[in-house]
Specification:
Low-confidence stretches: 93-104
Number of helices: 9
Number of strands: 0
Distance between the termini: 53 Å
Strand content: under 5%
Largest sheet: none
Helix content: 55-70%
Shape: globular
Order of helices and strands: HHHHHHHHH
Structural class: mainly alpha
Radius of gyration: 21 Å
């Protein structure tokens, strides 16, 4: 109901902005002021609408065991820890790799792509678009980070699904680059950025080589993992779980290079 009301409000405001253009010759200054006010209101509406959709989607996801950590990506102080927990869960699921999968990769079944999961994905996707249009780049990036995590869970041995995960990683990183730094200079997006890069490295590892040597995805994944480690070492502030992160990266990159 909230989303429906907000969508109606945005449509009315956009219609009013169109009528303002028609009357702008009579009073250009007043028309410009009204248009700016309407645009600002539209952005606020879209931001609120995006956050409601985000909450709807994540509420559906966290009800399922495979996605219980996804919601914690929304908080800066838990995003990196949540990503590490998800990636460690992949390794602890047990079993051997699926037929056609890579030796040494995590086993276990994919998370089920149920109707509820699809609905949740669609809601989070809509949320990301509305938040982007509202200029709320931090939350829009979070939406894409959540989608990247979901696709990592539902298609571990499916190269097409892993490409979707990488696509959302790229979109998240692009949006994070657009976030303005706060006046105190603290980087409020650093840990989310590291989390996204970890997802990207995992998706690269699972990618197909497209007719090339089978080791190419491993090399790309190792390069991405080493890049994250370098970011951590060179960062001014150590991540909250820096030791665990470096331990995971050492294990991941070392295993890839040995293969």
């Amino acid at each position: 109901q909230v989303v429906s009301e907000l969508q109606s409000a945005v449509r009315r405001l956009e219609a009013n902005m169109g009528s303002t253009d028609e009357d702008s010759d009579e009073d250009a200054e007043q028309a410009s002021s009204l248009r700016e006010e309407a645009e600002a209101t539209c952005r606020r509406c879209r931001s609120l609408m995006g956050r409601v959709q985000m909450r709807q989607g994540l509420t559906r996801l966290v009800r399922m065991a495979h996605f219980h950590s996804v919601g914690r990506l929304c908080k800066e102080d838990t995003a990196l820890q949540a990503a590490l927990e998800m990636l460690q869960d992949f390794k602890s699921e047990g079993g051997s790799a699926a037929p056609g999968g890579k030796a040494g990769d995590e086993g276990g079944a994919d998370a089920p792509l149920t109707g509820m999961t699809k609905d949740a994905i669609e809601l989070v996707l809509q949320a990301g678009e509305n938040l982007k249009q509202a200029g709320d780049y931090r939350m829009a990036a979070t939406a894409h980070a959540c989608l990247a995590a979901v696709y990592l869970c539902v298609g571990k041995q499916d190269s097409r699904v892993q490409r979707l995960s990488r696509t959302h990683c790229h979109r998240a990183l692009e949006l994070l680059a657009m976030v303005k730094a706060p006046p105190d200079g603290a980087d409020s997006t650093a840990e989310l950025e590291l989390a996204v890069k970890l997802f990207e490295a995992k998706a690269l590892r699972r990618s197909s080589s497209k007719g090339g040597p089978a080791w190419i995805p491993d090399v790309r994944a190792a390069e991405a993992a080493c890049g994250v480690a370098l970011d951590v070492v060179l960062s001014k502030e150590s991540p909250c779980c820096g030791r665990s992160l470096l331990g995971y990266l050492r294990q991941e990159a070392g295993g890839l290079l040995q293969r």
